[in-house]
């Protein structure tokens, strides 16, 4: 096992799962948690997974970044709605020669990280994961788990990406190095835009959408519009990828998207990262993504109402 140290910012469905796997494999991992820091400190981290349940009884967990050791690789596993906090969270916990790996949904979501450590020390990636946080220090992994990541600045697959990828692979995390992370993000949006958006608009799980002809047709139409938007920016996604995503979703265990979970709990949704930024990118490239924009406006309305109800 390498001597790289890892910091996890956000010990939720994503950070708790991947950080837990890294720690189980023998990596030195430090977790930054919020509401359940005391529970994890006292009871450890519990992960239920289709790949095998495990429990970490001794977890290095902290409630503030000032308490936490500086790490070689800091993984940002927060929702993008919390990215404004990174200016305070990252400086104390990233080594002077360390890097930040942003594992979040959406497009154009790395700016807050690059503002702290610089674009040349920022990695970015997408997680193909079905996982939920079901209680304090309790993660339930339902399906999938692959990470595709690379240098934020692109330029092929670096040695650093390969080294971190080896640590992930040793922790049984499936990894695919990405030579062009923006293309990777557009490909992930082919799934995220229809199934995050429709799950809220229709109040439906992935299974509900795929078991209905009209739901499937709406998802497919949105997928095709994402492909066209990516093409407007010069990123080619084969049309067969749409059918693959639909077929994969048919086979997936019934799953509530992260956006639907946030909506049910009345929390802010990642509307700008997953919808607003791609809609604006498409417009800047000269493409009229009107269906995506209509869903974006719908979600903005719902999100604003949720925020008002929280007050």
Question: Regarding CATH, which class of the largest domain?
Answer: Alpha Beta
- Uncertain ranges: none
Mean pLDDT over the full residue set = 96
Could you name the CATH topology of the largest domain? Answer: Rossmann fold
**Helix and strand run:** EHEHEEEEHEHEEHEHHHHHHH
Largest sheet: 10 strands, mixed
- Assigned CATH architecture of the largest domain: 3-Layer(aba) Sandwich
Supply the CATH superfamily name of the largest domain.
Answer: NAD(P)-binding Rossmann-like Domain
Quantity of strands, as a count: 10
Which of globular, elongated, flat, extended, rod-shaped describes the shape?
globular
Number of individual domains: 2
- Fraction of residues in H or I helices: 40-55%
Assess the beta-strand content as a share of residues: 15-25%
Summed up, the helix count is 12
- From the helix content, strand content and strand pairing, which structural class follows? alpha/beta
What is the CA-CA span between the terminal residues?
Answer: 48 Å
| Rg result | 19 Å
């Amino acid at each position: 096992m390498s001597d790289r140290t890892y910091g996890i910012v956000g010990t939720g469905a994503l950070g708790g799962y991947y950080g837990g796997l890294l720690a189980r494999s023998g990596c030195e991992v430090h977790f930054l948690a919020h509401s359940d820091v005391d529970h994890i400190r006292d009871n450890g981290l519990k992960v239920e997974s289709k790949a095998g349940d495990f429990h970490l009884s001794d977890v290095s967990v902290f409630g503030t970044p000032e308490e936490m050791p500086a790490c070689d690789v800091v993984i940002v596993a927060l929702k993008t709605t919390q990215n404004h906090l990174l200016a305070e969270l990252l400086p104390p916990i990233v080594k002077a020669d360390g890097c930040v790996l942003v594992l979040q949904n959406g497009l154009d979501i790395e700016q807050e990280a690059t503002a702290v450590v610089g674009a040349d020390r920022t990695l970015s990636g997408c997680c193909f994961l079905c996982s939920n946080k079901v209680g304090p220090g309790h993660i339930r992994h339902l399906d999938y788990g692959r990470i595709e990541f690379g240098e934020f600045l692109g330029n092929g697959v670096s040695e650093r990406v390969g080294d971190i990828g080896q640590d992930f692979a040793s922790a049984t995390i499936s990894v695919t190095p990405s030579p062009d992370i923006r293309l990777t993000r557009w490909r992930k949006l082919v799934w995220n835009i229809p199934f995050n958006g429709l799950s809220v608009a229709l109040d439906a799980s992935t299974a509900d959408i795929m078991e209905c002809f009209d739901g499937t047709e709406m998802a497919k139409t949105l997928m095709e519009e994402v492909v066209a938007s990516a093409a407007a920016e010069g990123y080619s996604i084969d049309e067969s990828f749409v059918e693959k995503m639909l077929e994969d979703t048919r086979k997936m265990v019934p799953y509530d998207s992260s956006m639907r979970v946030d909506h049910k709990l009345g929390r802010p949704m990642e509307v700008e990262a997953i919808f607003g930024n791609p809609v604006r990118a498409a417009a800047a490239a000269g493409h009229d993504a009107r269906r995506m924009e209509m869903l974006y406006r719908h979600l903005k309305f719902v999100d604003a109402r949720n925020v008002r109800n929280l007050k």
